[in-house]
Amino acid sequence: MKTRNLGNLAILLLTVALIGCDKSQVENDKAMASNVVPVKITPVTLGDIDRRLDFVGTLEPWQKAALGSQIPGKVEKIFVEEGDRVDKGDVLVQMSDEQLVQAQANLASLEKDWQRMKCLLEKGTVTQQAFDQIDAAYTAAKAGYEMVLSSTRIDAPFSGIITAKYMEEGEIFSLMPGPAGSPAILEIMDLDNMKITIAVPEKDLPVFSPGLKVIISVDAYPGEEFHAEVNRIAPTVNPRTRMGGIELKMRNYRGKLKPGMFARVSVIIKARRGVLIVPTKCILEENGGTYVFLAESGKAQSKPVKIGLQNAKITEIIDGIELGDSIISTGQRVVKPGDSIRIVESTLIPGGAE
């Protein structure tokens, strides 16, 4: 009986010991799991990279004009409406010819006087001075008539779009400043071509030359790129801002672009094709060197790297890691060399080769 009790006690003690071991193992497993860092990785890939200079500006029409008459008068007829497309030389406005009739009558009268004085001068009955006076008046009358004649109609100075109509038929045109800031009946713009003027720091001006291609983006069309080229470089630099003006010209394909739109301008100053790239956020710095963390056999391993071109999104790797290496792209600022890691997601670099 006593022997049986001792046996039961031994079994009980062994059971308690085993339970204690299991509990200790669970706690150890939990402790180890709590030290595992969740990370995201990105494979090192081949891709293209460039370095850019970025500027901002506002889209403007390539040409713009406020159209009015050289003399005041009644607006007889307007042949266009706002939004109409016109060609260079098209008649847009017909003014009243009342002043033209007066100018024509004045010219005819002075022409008769001029002919009479010329005959008298040839006969020697009038002085040269007297003839010169009537000759000057006659010349002025001809110029006045030509001006009034040209002012009776307003033609399109270039091909474009009528963007504003300030007056209606029957109204009196005045030479006083109007809605356009100057006397105007219509406003016309060339919207087939646009321009952007950007301010460039003096240190970056050597990058620019006439004909240089640049990339344009606007908020209205996210992800879409337009192209322009340098048309003119200002000959001077603002001594206060140390900026120089650069005028860009671009075609307005399909009429998408509108005057007044905010534009971002990018100039590619250096580019590399088919090189090793990683997300720029993966590049870490310490003691003047650069390094990344790789995911290898469930551990985080620090790797020194030599970098090349770099922009806000991606960085070229010249040496240190290889194509296909798994680089830690989220959690890289948390892990330490040798830390256990758990990969929760693998992502590719947008635009990079798989």
Description:
It contains three helices and 21 strands. Among the domains are: 37-49 and 273-346, conserved putative lor/sdh protein from methanococcus maripaludis s2 fold (Beta Barrel), CATH 2.40.420.20; 54-62 and 192-271, Efflux pump adaptor protein, beta barrel domain (Elongation Factor Tu (Ef-tu), domain 3), CATH 2.40.30; 97-151, Helix Hairpins. Strands 2, 3, 5, 8, 10, 11, 12, 13, 14, 18 and 19 form an eleven-stranded antiparallel beta sheet that branches. 23% of the residues lie in helices and 43% in strands. Helix 2 packs antiparallel against helix 3 (128-151). It is an alpha+beta fold and 354 residues long. InterPro entries: Beta-barrel_RND_2 (IPR058792), MdtA-like_BSH (IPR058625), RND_pump_MFP (IPR006143), YknX-like_C (IPR058637). Belongs to the membrane fusion protein (MFP) (TC 8.A.1) family. One of its GO terms (molecular function) is efflux transmembrane transporter activity.
